[in-house]
Design brief:
Radius of gyration: 19 Å
Order of helices and strands: HHHHHHHHHHHHH
Distance between the termini: 19 Å
Number of domains: 1
Shape: globular
Largest sheet: none
Length: about 300
């Protein structure tokens, strides 16, 4: 369990950089995600091919994993859209609603009882987002996109938890990137029709950032998350990822001086989100200690 939490928090640290890359890369959100998934898929194929860890799966299994990857691609499009229509801080804070959506959706999809404690903890996050939404009216388009993003990624993580018990993390990640890349490729003509661009070819600077984003914040990050999901629940993973805004906001303040744009209600909302994470992590560790004590006796 301890190793899984270490892997989880390393992945959260890496995730903190995704918002910064979203701001650095000048491509629109659709093209950014398209290139990210394609580059990540290619890198994974090379890495797993060289290490001889690449495993074939049946067509049905590929469809399951690919659909999960497509959900991930959709989440990224809305996530980066949220950042580009607001700023890094607002975009990543909206991502924190994933825990709230997971607390509601996971019991329904997995046919289990609702956990009152999870709903209450997620309610703190919801209250934090509501505070930010109410007072930062100029960012409402970005906030709306961020809420849709967190809803989509809740479905993705619940499905990924099931996949993690059936396949290795490398298998899941490589086929998700390939499947997601194919799915986003199908959407691209329609997307570019409504959001036309002068060129779909990235500059050398954008290509460098895309490669770094793909290698560290995609390939390595999702391998770590998938490993963690084999030991930790989807709700805990999602709620723990509420720490991502702390890293992203710190980087946004350091690089883009976004503290000039943030209001007092924003910081109060962020405080509520952090409190929900601290309480959930305490709850998980207490339960873990109790289960170990029972097993010893």
């Amino acid at each position: 369990m301890r190793k899984a939490f270490i892997q989880l928090h390393i992945s959260i640290l890496l995730a903190g950089f995704t918002g910064v890359f979203g701001k650095l890369i000048t491509l629109n959100e659709g093209l950014l995600v398209w290139y990210r998934m394609l580059i990540s898929g290619i890198l994974l194929l090379i890495i797993l091919g060289v290490s001889r860890k690449l495993k074939a799966v049946s067509l049905e299994d590929f469809k399951r994993i690919a659909f999960s990857g497509f959900l991930l691609g959709l989440h990224w499009i809305f996530f980066y859209g949220s950042i580009k229509y607001s700023n890094i801080s607002v975009g990543v804070v909206c991502f924190s609603l994933t825990g709230f959506f997971t607390a509601i959706l996971a019991p329904i999809l997995n046919k289990k009882k609702f956990a009152v404690s999870e709903l209450l903890l997620s309610g703190l996050t919801l209250l934090g987002i509501a505070l930010i939404f109410s007072f930062d009216s100029k960012y409402r388009t970005g906030i709306t996109l961020g809420i849709v993003s967190s809803l989509i990624v809740a479905f993705y993580t619940i499905g990924n938890e099931r996949l993690a018990h059936a396949f290795g993390s490398e298998v899941i990640t490589v086929y998700q990137m390939i499947g997601g890349g194919l799915g986003v490729s199908v959407l691209m003509p329609l997307y570019l029709y409504f959001f036309p661009v002068d060129s779909i070819i990235p500059s050398m600077q954008d290509l460098t950032y895309l490669t770094m984003l793909s290698l560290f914040c995609t390939v390595l990050l999702y391998l770590l998350v998938t490993h963690a999901l084999s030991k930790i629940s989807a709700f805990t993973v999602n709620l723990s990822f509420n720490l991502e805004p702390i890293y992203s906001i710190a980087l946004a303040i350091l690089i883009y001086k976004e503290n000039r744009e943030l209001t007092t209600p924003f910081y109060i909302g962020l405080g509520l989100i952090i409190l929900s994470v601290v309480l959930q992590m305490a709850k998980v560790f207490i339960q873990s200690k109790k289960s170990r004590a029972v097993s010893i006796h």
